[in-house]
Amino acid sequence: MRRVFLILLTTFTCGVAGAQNVVGGEATDGMKAVISGTVYQEKSKLPVRQASVVAEGTHVSVVTNDDGFFTLKANVVPKYITVSHLGYQSKRVRITPGQADPLRILLKPTAVELKEVMASPRSRASRSHSACTRFQRRYAA
């Protein structure tokens, strides 16, 4: 029984090692898919640091380095990856298994609009300040 188990285990391990898909990188660490590339700003072509790269349909995600480069390793080849960063439109990129070149992803900047904030002199801070002033007048000698 033990011998049969070892034979099956060896056969399965060899089959998994031979069925690796690589997109823009080398498969390592027993992973079936390795996807790599660089994320750039669309207009200036500067790298986007700390952009989030998520393989759809998996729980695998990475963040780009200071040069905008990422390497995503997954057990399953995803159909799409999603790249996002605050201040940029998210981009969904289709993955082609067997693609040898690293991906080059361009993100388009977006404007972030904040709601208007109204400041008035009757804020909580001014009330606490007046309470402190009254305390000082009352108890200070």
Structural commentary:
The chain has 141 residues and is α/β, with parallel strands linked by helices. The chain is built from 2 helices and 8 strands. Strands 1, 2, 5 and 8 form a 4-stranded mixed sheet that branches. Strands 4-3-6-7 form a 4-stranded antiparallel sheet, with no helix packed on it. Strand 3 and strand 4 (61-63) form a beta hairpin. It is elongated and about 80 Å long.
Quaternary structure of the protein: single chain
N→C terminal distance: 94 Å
The value of Rg in angstroms is: 27 Å
Please state roughly what percent of the residues sit in beta strands, choosing from under 5%, 5-15%, 15-25%, 25-35%, 35-45% or over 45%.
Answer: 25-35%
Mean pLDDT equals 78
Total number of β-strand segments? Answer: 8
Overall structural class, as computed from helix and strand content, comes to alpha/beta
Question: Largest sheet, described in full?
Answer: 4 strands, mixed
Estimate percent helicity: 10-25%
Count of helices? Answer: 2
Give the SSE order as H and E letters.
Answer: HEEEEEEEEH
Question: What are its keywords?
Answer:
alpha/beta, four-stranded mixed beta sheet, 28% strand, 2 helices, single chain, elongated
Helix and strand arrangement:
Layout: H1 2-18, E1 21-23, E2 33-41, E3 52-55, E4 61-63, E5 69-74, E6 80-84, E7 91-94, E8 103-107, H2 124-139
Parallel strand pairs: 1-2, 2-8
Antiparallel strand pairs: 2-5, 3-4, 3-6, 6-7
Brief overview:
This protein has 141 residues and is of the alpha/beta class. The chain has helices at 2-18, 124-139; strands at residues 21-23, 33-41, 52-55, 61-63, 69-74, 80-84, 91-94, 103-107.
